[in-house]
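A favour, since you know our structure tokens better than I do. Could you add the entry underneath, on a fresh line?
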Amino acid sequence: MDAVSKYTKKQHYVPQCYLKRFCNEAGNLEVFELRGARPFSTSPKNIASKRWLYESDSLETNTIEKILSGWESRLPIVLDKLVAGANSRLKRKRPNSGLITESEKAALIWLIALQMFRTPTFRGRFVGASDDEDEAHDFFLLCLGDPWRNLEVLEYWNSHHLTVARTPKGSIFWTSDHPVAAIFTEDRGNGLVAGEPTIFYPIDSNHMVILTPDSPKLGRPVRTFEATKEAVDCYNYQQAANCESQVYAAEKTEREINDLIRRWPEVADGHVPLEFRGEASLNPSFSLAPPRALKR
């Protein structure tokens, strides 16, 4: 075996263990390409990846890839616990009970932040803003490999309230090659932690994590609710609006995506409701931006 063949060359910016949560019974995802290519079906290993994405001359080969793989191994454990707890609470009509520990929530927050930072679009913006691209790329990799460099971001997001939304019967959540959607209700300013973003992160075809700026109305426990069909459409549209170029789902999505795109003027004129059901009620609203990948 030669020296190169033992390394991971195709490096995923969306983990395969995450994408597998959206696969159909055949183990494939339906892929919709927003830039015009024909939809197709494939396995997670063939999408959301780029050769040698996390490499640098200043690091040993696969250093960052190994660090990311270590973090990714924790993701299914936390997400499975969230899903099982959410389903149990909804069945027993106890939506305000805690589902995960504070340490598990902190790990989930870091994994969500990591997912947001590691995509080619974020890297392009990060590196493109620097006069020295090689130096900026190395610093980008160090930030991925060392979460404490992002402590301000982690502490800020960890103060957010965590909610798990479940789809109604007959609906599914989509994901994408940029699955963390951040919706800002205020001007975000110049920094990553400015403004008051709400974070949307689908965790399988029937569940989504929502991180909302902390509010005394919500309290500290993790909340759960069953979304309406209209809310699922809005959340799915936001996946299309924030993706790099591809949307993924367990079922064919071409018709649904085209329908939402046609409805864009209708959606843009109003606001998207975010329903929280339970003892306390909060109904923030936000405007959707047109899909980045569709801009000409």
Observations:
- The chain has ten helices and 13 strands.
- Residues 187-194, 265-296 have pLDDT under 50 and may be disordered.
- Residues 10-283 form one domain.
- The longest strand covers residues 197-204.
